[in-house]
Design goal:
The protein is α+β, with helices and mostly antiparallel strands. It contains eight helices and 18 strands.
């Protein structure tokens, strides 16, 4: 496991311990992980220190019973403190958005699954940033950007809420997907139910209760609801397995989808090309393979220009 993976694992442990139900089994698993290596223990200390937001390294909390073999030596404390100072000087490591929020992100083309202690699961799509926190008894996820799929264990005593800008999605025992674009938010419900609240649509708050198959798209000017077959919503979630699936999709839309997942962007040279329609399943991470398939299918030309794949006549 490389240093980045260890830091992420340490952040996961801190997040689970602070925000979600913490059991004796969780504690035992953490003790085992800490005992595996000095690198694990230093990473945990570093992440826990950033969580404390005190500008100093803190030792493991008194209630954390660390086996003798896992105790931190003064040398490791000094090393961890040095790393912490460097990290804070660079703007923090993980918990930087809110003193009581755990932050997770994916790069362009990346995916990540967050398994919460209560059995809930959050799957992050490409270029996504979320923060997890608690407000009283409410479990809260803030979707800063991108797209996430939620499989939530319903608990009436501990409501689960997703906030995306001026929009709020409240779980009623459900599976749903939320996508936040720069100017709008889209929610699709797979199973169960959610309440969607828009704080400011043309100056007026609006709400809606969603049932399976409902899709709501909201921006500052409108809130629109439509119905889709569940199988179509599941097809749109093919990104969870690294695929993009198109059915009579205009090339303009397909290219825009690929550009979300790749740094090498597809550029369509001409409106006639943009209106062509395509079907099929493609690996989301391979824009070049998709471009070559379009080239062969329609007799077009693909040219590399910098970080662009230009498709032309």
């Amino acid at each position: 496991m490389n240093a980045l993976d260890i830091d992420q694992a340490a952040a996961d442990w801190v997040q689970r311990r602070q925000f979600w139900n913490w059991s004796d089994d969780d504690q035992a698993a953490l003790d085992v992980w800490l005992a595996e290596s000095d690198r694990n223990r230093v990473a945990y200390l570093r992440q826990n220190a950033v969580w404390e937001s005190a500008g100093r390294l803190v030792v493991l909390k008194p209630e954390l019973e660390v086996p003798a073999r896992a105790r931190i030596s003064p040398l490791l404390m000094r090393i961890a403190a040095g790393v912490l100072v460097a990290a804070l000087g660079a703007g923090g490591i993980v918990y930087t958005m809110h003193p009581r929020a755990a932050v997770y992100s994916t790069d362009i083309g990346g995916r990540k699954t967050l398994q919460l202690a209560d059995g809930s699961r959050i799957e992050l799509n490409t270029n996504t940033l979320v923060s997890l926190s608690k407000e009283g008894d409410t479990r809260k996820v803030t979707l800063v950007r991108g797209e996430a799929y939620f499989h939530i264990h319903h608990d009436a005593a501990h409501p689960f809420v997703v906030v995306a800008g001026d929009y709020r999605v409240t779980d009623i025992g459900t599976e749903f997907v939320v996508r936040r674009a720069p100017e709008r938010v889209e929610v699709g419900l797979i199973k169960g139910g959610v309440r969607f609240d828009a704080a400011n649509v043309q100056g007026t708050p609006q709400s809606a209760l969603l049932t399976p198959g409902d899709v709501v798209v909201a921006d500052a000017n409108s809130m629109k609801m439509s119905k889709k077959p569940i199988r179509d919503l599941m097809t749109e979630l093919s990104w969870r397995r690294g695929m993009l699936v198109f059915k009579d999709t205009m090339l303009e839309e397909a290219a825009a989808q690929f550009n979300r997942y790749n740094r090498e962007k597809i550029v369509l040279a001409g409106a006639d090309i943009a209106r062509l329609k395509i079907n099929g399943s493609f690996q989301a991470s391979s824009s070049e393979l998709f471009a070559r398939s379009v080239q062969d299918l329609f007799g077009l030309t693909v040219t590399h220009t910098g970080n662009e794949l230009v498709i032309s006549q």
